[in-house]
Amino acid sequence: MHRFLLLLLPALVVAQPQPTTHTSPLPALRQQAEERQAWTEKRLETVLPALMEEFDIDMWILSMREYGEDPVFWSMTAPTTFAARRRSIYVFDKQDDGTVRRLALGGGSQGGLYEAYVDPDQSVEGRELWGEGQWYLLNKLVTDADPERIALNIDELQAFADGLGAGEREGLERALGETYTARVVREPRLATNYISIRIPEMLPRYRELTELVHGLLSEAFSSRVITPGVTTTDDVRWWLRQQLNDLGLSTWFHPSIAVQREGGTGMLSGVVIERGDLLWSDFGLVGMNMHTDTQHLGYVLKEGETDVPEGLKAGLRTSNRLQDLLLEEMEPGRTGNEVLMSTLERMRTEGINGTVYTHPIGDHGHGAGPLIGLWDRQRPIAGRGDLLLRPNTWFSIELQATSQVPEWGGQAVQFRQEEEAYLDASGNRHWVLGRQETFWVVRDD
């Protein structure tokens, strides 16, 4: 038995995908942390005061415990802060001049992002800084500031604005007392917009990460990784995962690799990749707390073929056209639902058979902000779809157009694409790097 396995081993080794030739575009960890710290400080100093003014919020209180962090926590803490500190309370107190005083009850200043707030008269006898002592300090702080409108992250529809735990809320309301609990308002746009708005300094690094994604997918859909008749879709999935690990990066979801083939039904995964297969990927990485989400297409040449069949090329062009229509409709000030419905109307007018399911991206993969459809719901989405598009935000333009391919006997084929785009300060739309307009091709090298 062992001799038989040894005889098979060389063939198994030869069939394995080859290591990547790519390198990480990111600098050393210390420099990454310095850049991220500067980004966080600028967001706190510019984005936050503007939003508190826009939504007429005098004080914003975030309260959380270790392992129960508010979603917005990761967008406003130092890169060397990995979790809440037993109990962390952050208070954002708007001043008369429009600036916002940033206070931390528990933990330190995080490199100057916050002012560590302690009881100035040290009157809390026998109480530690966390626990009951923190509630005392919060009551004192709020009483001294006397805000009219206090925002808490409680919301039934927006997960990004619903970070206040049920038990934490009980303690917080006791600390506020009846007077200030009555002044609590729910303003989910404060958290969702703060998370979603990007600053220009972040874009160059994000573009570098997007370029790496494109490079990895071009290699994944090449003869360096795929041997027709041998390599499986799962082999390619794990190859992508391994490359990210080796590059010191991570992902926020397990990659998807599937094929469509002549005579087949729908998307096929967990199969051996064959000549003539149309390849599809869904792949995202995480670097410097920025997320990508990309779907590209590839083709495995048949024996004797030198190029991708024209019918497949035409299907990709149709999908590109749907991308154009969507970007044209993504005007700031419109809701995600408005963009969806107008895009679908234009899509049908042009005779395109497709679906749109685009989402924000940035500090999270499925990021904060307006949804533009869902893959299984091509109709207005209550709540998330009602949010307004804003300048300085990023989106994963995700959609598909279905076309009949003559070379496959008129078989209906889905051309699924996903590409990163951004709305600049003026609301103009741009691709972060570019979009796929030609297939990645697996050739006999």
Sequence-ordered SSE layout with sheet pairings:
Blueprint: H1 2-14, H2 29-54, E1 59-65, E2 87-94, E3 100-105, E4 115-116, H3 132-145, E5 150-151, H4 166-181, E6 184-185, H5 188-196, H6 203-220, H7 233-246, E7 256-260, E8 278-282, E9 286-287, E10 290-291, E11 297-300, H8 310-329, H9 336-349, E12 353-356, E13 359-360, E14 393-405, E15 411-423, E16 429-431, E17 440-442
Parallel strand pairs: 1-5, 3-4, 5-6, 11-17
Antiparallel strand pairs: 1-2, 2-3, 7-8, 8-11, 9-10, 12-14, 13-14, 14-15, 15-16
DSSP helical segment count: 9
Distance between the termini: 36 Å
| Helical coverage, percent range | 25-40%
Mean of the pLDDT scores? 92
Which shape, going by the Cα principal axes? elongated
Low-confidence spans? 1-15, 124-130
Supply the helix-strand structural class: alpha+beta
N-to-C SSE series? HHEEEEHEHEHHHEEEEEHHEEEEEE
**What Rg do the Cα atoms give?**
26 Å
Strand order of the largest sheet: 4-3-2-1-5-6
* Extended strand count: 17
Main sheet record: 6 strands, mixed
Beta content comes to 15-25%
Structural notes for this entry:
With 445 residues, the chain is α+β, with helices and mostly antiparallel strands. Helices cover 32% and strands 19% of the residues. It is built from nine helices and 17 strands. The protein has helices at 2-14, 29-54, 132-145, 166-181, 188-196, 203-220, 233-246, 310-329, 336-349; strands spanning 59-65, 87-94, 100-105, 115-116, 150-151, 184-185, 256-260, 278-282, 286-287, 290-291, 297-300, 353-356, 359-360, 393-405, 411-423, 429-431, 440-442. Strands 4-3-2-1-5-6 form a six-stranded mixed β-sheet. Strands 12, 13, 14, 15 and 16 form a five-stranded antiparallel β-sheet that branches. A four-stranded mixed β-sheet has the order 7-8-11-17. Helix 3 packs parallel to helix 4 (166-181) and helix 8 packs across helix 9. The radius of gyration is 26 Å and the shape is elongated. 42% of the residues are buried. Residues 1-15 and 124-130 have low confidence and may be disordered.
